[in-house]
Amino acid sequence: MLKLRSKLGEWQRRLSGISQKATSPPLSPPVEPIFEAVEETKVETVIEEQVEQVVDQQVLEPEVIPTVTEVDKKAEVVEEPVDDRVYVTKDTLISRGLNPFAEKVRIAYAFKCVDLEVIILDSNDQDPSWFHTASPKGQYPVMEYPDGSYSSDLEKMISRLQKDHPVPTLYPGNFADCHRCLIYLNREFFPAFDKALYENSQEHREQLEAAVTEIVHTLENHSSGPYLLGDDFSIVDVVLAPFLRRLGLIPGLKIDEGVLGKYLQKLEETPCVAGVVSPIEKVKRYHATD
Prior knowledge:
By secondary structure, the chain is mainly alpha-helical.
């Protein structure tokens, strides 16, 4: 019995100790799960390493957006191409040799008493730097104006002259008569003249003879004065004068020299024509070597 009581006392003491251990606070903080801590540390380390590599490879700079004022300043800095050409101070006609087309323009300017600069290039002279811009076909004459513009169109040159200097007029009397004669000359006379002069075939001579006969017919039957359209010098006389003087350059040409000769003499006596056209002997020598 004493032994039993002794055993019971020992068990009670043991149970009391166990109870105290269970209720007493832990001596050290609980240990966090090691796996999760390790994994989070690895992820943070990898991210930091990648960011460091990107920063090392390229330094990112913030994008600078220009303000409206800055854009305007840059636009103001853009300069126009420099035009270093020296502009002429008056209408300037540039031609080569004894050009009858250039003489037409010169006669028109002389008739209106308008100052014209004339430059006649020799065969060795180079074309102006702007020549092919002004004359895409490479033909002379060309006109350069003080405003920097050009023209290789003879009709436009004379039309501009008439517009800028209407008096004295190149279209006296009936404008329709002048216009009708110009159309005929441009369609029939000038092409025939050019072909007869440079190709000189029988067919071309006959075409030119027919065109000249029509001019003679107009002088005999429709003109009341010494000029083609009457008493007043006109645009028709301007364009005809340089070419009628060159009819003698075409061999074998059969024309009525009576009426036509009288008309040509009157043209050569007119001051604006006499001061421009070259002596016929000089023209013959030029065409002989052309």
